[in-house]
Structure formats: C-alpha cells, structure tokens
Specification:
330 residues; alpha/beta; Rossmann fold; Cytochrome-c3 Hydrogenase, Chain A, domain 2; five-stranded parallel sheet; two-stranded antiparallel ribbon; 11 helices; 13 strands; elongated
Length: 330
C-alpha cells in the first residue's frame, strides 16, 4: 500500500515525532508492513515538477492512492478560498488539493490535533480560518464535509495528539494495511480506540499521590497536579503513560500537567495550562465518570488518611521520606 503525506498549516512536529519511532525505526516498520511513501515533503527526494505530475496523476485516477495522510490544519481563508496557503508550484491552495485528493484515497488519516480538529493553529481569533480535515474544533465539518467518507467507507481517521505519539501513527497505518481498521475501531471523535480507550491517568507515576489527594503546589514538586496545577489526565484520552515516549517519557512523568492535547479545542482552555479552575474551592474539571458528590466525599476521606510519607513527598522535589521497612515477625 502507498502513502501520500501532505504537510499543511502547522509546525511539522508530528513528522519530527514520527521519526522518533524506535525498535524498529519508522522506515523499517512501514516497509515490513508493505507500506511505502509515494511522497512525503520532508522525507522524499522528489520536488517540483515530478511531484506536481504525481498529484495530477492521482487526481486524474491514473495513480492509485491507498492512504492520504494530512499533517497540520487546513487554512480556508481568505473568504473560503484557501489562498492563505498555496501548495508551492501548483498554483492551487492546499484546501483545493485536499478536497480533490481525499475522495480518491482508500483511507484518509489526519495526523496530529491541528489536522484533526484545528489545534494550535486555529487558536485565538483565527484570521486564517484554520480548521481540521473533517472537524472544526469539536464540530463535524471542516475542510471536508461532516458526511465525507473515503473509498473505504470510513470518515477521516483522527490520530489526535500535539504532537502524536509515533506509535499511534504507525499502528494506525499498520491496522489499515492489515485490513483491521473499521468503524468499530474508532471512538466518537474518530480517534483510533487502541489508544483513545485509555486515559492519560492510567499508569501515571503520580497515581499514589492522586489516591490520597496529596497535591503539588509548584511544577517542581512530586505530588498530584490535578488540584492546583491544571492536570486533566483523569479526563484526557491517550495511553501516554502506558507505552511512553522515546521508550519511557510522558508529560506527567516529566513533571508537567496533562493538557488534554488529544481533544478538540484543548488549545483554548480559558485559563493557564498550569492552573486548575475552581468553584468554591472545588476543581471544575473532575475525573471522567465521577459524580461531584462522590469525588468530594472520597477526596475528604483520602486527605484525612494521607500517610506522612506521601504528604511530605508531595510538596518535595525528590523523595524525602522513603517507604518504611516492613517489620518481620520474631
């Protein structure tokens, strides 16, 4: 199967992340699955007229297209023309090319939250009218209409993340190659369920502090970051703490709160990323599926039962009190 990868309005960070795939690297992995790039603007040697001819051949139906990957948001301005972002050397906008090529593809994959929902490039007043490939924020209908399906019958597959984990991209492509990508494999926002059925909270190294509501007050401290530092890993989808980045990392493992970058409109939470909005001292955003009354009752009990070790370590930048040794029976 072949892949055409277009980079639209964005930072290119998802391609940079993809290149961090290891054991095996991305090229060996895709080759082993029978996947090859027709063209990737950052990785392929071809430029200019040969690329233009390839795009025209796909558009004319002379070149089959199995997977169209789009990285970055699609710019619709000014006035719906898309001319704020022209595909160099073609005299046509990226918006025009995406709308023309997507119906030719067996599968369309939006890579990264800019491509899926608009992301950072759509923040603020959005004078460029940047949107996702098939979503405008959380609303269906972006560069492509809400009812769009590719030749496979699927909507745009939204591999959301800012940036995406390299494994999310490669696993999605391999599922497509194996014929295992179907409607039931996508969640309600068209994200692949193999990672979207998990929460960032799962396997977070700060879970012991979360259990006792032992909270950090500054970024350098070890405690849970939900209460004071804006972490919403209990609501954010992603297996970041299960599979790890670069073998072992994640935002919360590095001591930074989860900002829910796999979700529509994460880029404009209405407050600072490291602030927890509260009402009457209670965090506004509570864990998924958790009624407020239950959370408050459990939080009160947990705080009352917090061991000294956890309470002291939560506001320290390293372990000050190690676990006590279990006394042996004599």
């Amino acid at each position: 199967m072949n892949i055409l990868w277009l980079q639209s309005a964005g930072c290119g960070g998802c391609t940079m992340s993809l290149l961090c795939a290891e054991d095996p690297n991305v090229f060996a992995l895709l080759d082993g699955a029978g996947l090859k790039f027709l063209w990737h603007p950052s990785l392929s040697e071809a430029t200019g007229a040969p690329v233009r001819r390839m795009l025209e051949a796909i558009e004319a139906g002379e070149q089959a297209l199995d997977i169209l990957c789009i990285e970055g948001s699609i710019v619709r301005g000014p006035g719906g023309t898309g001319k704020f972002h022209m595909l160099s050397g073609t005299g046509r906008s990226m918006l025009d090319w995406v709308q023309s090529l997507a119906p030719k593809a067996e599968h369309v994959v939006a890579v990264g939250t800019c491509a899926t929902y608009g992301g950072v490039t759509s923040a603020g007043e959005n004078p460029a009218d940047a949107v996702g490939v098939q979503y405008d924020g959380s609303l269906p209908g972006g560069a492509l209409p809400a009812e769009f399906t590719s030749r496979s019958g699927l909507p745009v597959i939204n591999v959301a993340g800012c940036p995406t984990h390299p494994d999310w991209v490669t696993e999605t492509l391999m599922l497509i190659a194996a014929g295992e990508m179907h409607a039931g494999a996508l969640d309600g926002l068209a994200r692949p369920r193999f990672y979207a059925d998990n929460l960032v909270h799962h396997a977070c190294p700060k879970n012991e502090f979360y259990e006792y509501k032992a909270s950090a007050t500054h970024l350098s401290e070890m405690g849970c970051m939900m209460e004071h530092l804006g972490c919403i890993g209990t609501q954010a989808v992603g297996d970041c703490n299960i599979r790890g980045w670069n073998g072992e990392g994640s935002c919360t493992r590095a001591g930074y709160p989860c900002i829910n970058c796999t979700a529509p409109e994460f880029e404009e939470p209405g407050h600072g990323f490291t602030e927890t909005p509260k009402f009457a001292g209670i965090p506004v955003g509570l864990p998924s599926d958790m009624p407020k009354a239950w959370f408050m009752a459990l939080a009160s009990l947990s705080k009352a039962a917090t061991p000294n070790r956890i309470a002291r370590n939560a506001v320290a930048d390293r372990i000050e009190v190690p676990p006590s040794l279990k006394k042996t029976k004599t």
